[in-house]
C-alpha cells in the first residue's frame, strides 16, 4: 500500500517566555492509503499539535512531514496551501461552519469549482437529504457535524483529519 502521510522524527517546540515547551518529541509514524487510525491521549499530550502538523496548518520545529509523497518543508507557502486545499479534508472540533451559509454552501466552500450537484450528493451520503438550504442554526449538533464531514469530503481528499470526533465513524462519512 502507498503511504499517504509519513511523520519522521518530528519535533514541535513552543517558546513560552523564557521556557521552551516540547509539545511533540521525535514522533515517527506512517498512514497508509485506506487506513483509519485514531490518535489518543490525555489533554495536553500533543494530539491537536500533531493534527496541525499533519494538516500543514503548522510547521515542525524539526523533522519531516511527507504528504502524498511531498516533503512539506521543500514546498513554498503557496504550494503547501494548494496541497492542503486539494489533498486534506478537515473536521474541526467545533465544526467551523459559516453561520450565514447553508449546509450546501458550507460543503461547496473548499471546492476549487463550486459544484451544487456534488455538494448535494455528499450531503445525501451523510444523511442530510433535503436539508441543503438549512443554516447551521437550523440543524442539530449531529447534523452540523455531518455537514462538517461532508465539507471535509468535498475535494475527494487523500487524508481526512478529525479533531476530537469521538462519535465519528466511516459509516457516518458515507
Describe this structure as you would to a colleague.
- The chain is of the alpha+beta class.
- The chain has two domains: about 5-75, Rossmann fold, CATH 3.40.50.300; about 105-174, no CATH class.
- Helix content is about 30%, strand content about 25%.
- It is built from six helices and six strands.
- It has a four-stranded antiparallel sheet with strand order 2-1-3-4, with helices on one face.
- Strand 1 and strand 2 form a beta hairpin.
- The longest helix is centred in the last third of the chain and has 13 residues, at about 140-155.
- The model is unreliable at about 170-174 (pLDDT under 50).
Briefly characterize the structure.
Helix content is 30%, strand content 25%.
Q: How are the secondary structure elements laid out?
A:
Layout: E1 3-16, E2 19-32, H1 47-54, E3 62-67, E4 70-71, H2 77-87, E5 88-91, H3 103-108, H4 116-125, H5 141-153, E6 159-162, H6 170-173
Parallel strand pairs: 5-6
Antiparallel strand pairs: 1-2, 1-3, 3-4
Helix pairs in contact: 4-5
Summary keywords:
ATP binding; alpha+beta; ABC_transpr_LolD-like; two-stranded parallel sheet; Rossmann fold; 174 residues; transmembrane transporter activity; four-stranded antiparallel sheet
Amino acid at each position: 500500500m502507498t503511504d499517504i502521510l509519513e511523520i519522521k522524527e518530528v519535533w514541535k517546540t513552543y517558546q513560552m517566555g523564557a521556557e521552551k515547551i516540547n509539545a511533540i518529541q521525535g514522533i515517527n509514524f506512517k498512514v497508509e492509503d485506506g487506513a483509519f487510525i485514531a490518535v489518543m491521549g490525555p489533554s495536553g499530550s500533543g494530539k491537536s499539535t500533531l493534527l496541525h502538523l499533519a494538516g500543514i496548518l503548522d510547521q515542525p520545529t524539526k523533522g519531516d512531514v511527507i504528504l502524498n509523497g511531498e516533503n512539506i518543508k521543500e514546498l513554498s507557502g503557496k504550494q503547501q496551501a494548494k496541497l492542503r486545499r486539494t489533498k486534506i479534508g478537515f473536521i474541526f472540533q467545533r465544526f467551523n461552519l459559516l453561520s450565514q451559509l447553508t449546509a450546501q454552501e458550507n460543503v461547496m466552500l473548499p471546492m476549487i469549482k463550486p459544484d451544487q450537484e456534488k455538494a448535494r450528493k455528499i450531503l445525501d451520503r451523510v444523511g442530510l437529504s433535503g436539508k441543503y438550504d438549512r443554516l447551521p442554526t437550523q440543524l442539530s449538533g449531529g447534523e452540523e457535524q455531518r455537514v462538517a464531514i461532508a465539507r471535509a469530503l468535498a475535494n475527494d481528499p487523500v487524508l481526512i483529519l478529525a479533531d476530537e470526533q469521538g462519535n465519528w465513524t466511516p459509516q457516518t462519512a458515507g
